[in-house]
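In this supplementary section we document a worked example of the pipeline. Step one takes a protein sequence of length 507 as its only input; no multiple sequence alignment statistics are reported here. Step two produces a three-dimensional model, which step three serialises into structure tokens for compact storage. The input and output of this example are shown verbatim.
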Amino acid sequence: MSDKIRVRFAPSPTGGLHLGGVRTALFNYLFARQNGGDFILRVEDTDQTRFVEGAEEYILDCLNWCGITPDEGPHAGGEFGPYRQSERKALYREYAEQLVEQGNAYYAFDTPEELDQKREEIPNFQYGHTHRNNLRNSIFLPVNEVQQLLKDGVPHVIRIKVPVDENIGFNDLIRGRVNFETSTIDDKVLLKADGMPTYHLAVVVDDYLMQITHAFRGEEWLPSAPVHLLLWEYLGWKTAMPQWAHLPLILKPDGHGKLSKRDGDSLGFPVYAMNWTDPKNGDLTKGFRELGFLPEAFVNLLAMLGWNNGTDQEIFSLEELVQQFSIDRISKAGAQFDFEKAKWYNHEWIKQSSAANLEPQVIPVLRQHNIFAENYPQLKKIIDLVKDRCTLLTDFYEHSAYFFQKPTTETIDWPSIQPKWNQAKTDFFRAFIQKSQEIETWETVVIETTFKGLVQEKGIKIGEVMLPFRIILVGGKFGPAVFDIAEVLGKQEIAERIEAALAFLGR
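The serialised model returned by step three reads:
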């Protein structure tokens, strides 16, 4: 085992990346960074029937977006490559054959049809110690027949030979001691007929050869643990076995069942990190990024699904998570996903983010609505004015559109000002246009002082003209402080908007 901490995230390139997968990657990353270790991406693409073109690149894009970039992997390289299991195929057969020679595994020549028939004949059929002694395998068949079948190239798999009536276990970093009775475990396939390994063999061989010291994975892998324990023992690597931590499930909002990839549309929120388009049928599954989540918020909310630092603190930067993460604060119980809480995290992160950080992410949002604000000098100021009102990045259009586009006579909330409109208000706003042109330093405080001074001069109540002023500038009863809006718009623009409103009201 390496003296250096080495962890791995090992997804299968079969489609979009579920938020549970990103959380697994995150916890691996945090543990590695905290301990000065390495974070490895290993692509488990041995199931070629489920391989999806573009999925590997998508996974890496998701990790990069989250800021949890691997130190080693298919795209980064490293001394323990190759990092795609499909490129390590020859390795696995070598170890599978070793297990057969030792008597810890065997060849099985049963066809899929024969196994289907057994399942029909025998309720709850398992290929294990109960039935393996009378099936078409190298345990039951004569040695010469097995040799001939192999010589003739008859399709076969290699299965582990699970011992009977043994108790095996390990110390989970989250759950403590976990034990299993081997008599309940079937003889899992280790090497498939196409020569590709199953997950069981590949994960053990690769963790050993890549010197993985700690393995974080979802609790759904616990039932596979006894097979892996046996393989570590049979291959003579038991002392090099990584320490395991089985993470709690991420549950549906009602707490009933694991939050699956199919739940997104039905529950009305994404379960993928980023948009994923299925190359086979063109179906789009929406992701958190495109919905308008900041990567900082997404990482923050994932960290809090099953972990806390023992205080009431909820907002953590990635750097703070690295400093404070600890395995002993990971819960054993499943974590219910709450989309409203997820949006709260995003709102908090938007509020505390600088305009400079938000600007490159707001520009594309505005561009989707034909607002090209790349070179707009006041954009940062606008972002600072409206960010407290935005829960998602996509909200920036709704809350800032009026800075770039004049409200139209069709969109202005006339009913809120028209019934009480009179000649005195018309005179006030005409006078304000004149006064505003005389302002030399166009700043909020000066605009406000000028406006309120005119109110006193005209002998009207401030409340009678403040709401109309806001509605004339932005179209409705919304937005930040109205004099801040006026400063950003500029004296010429507010004059044009007031003139347009007066023309409509004076019809």
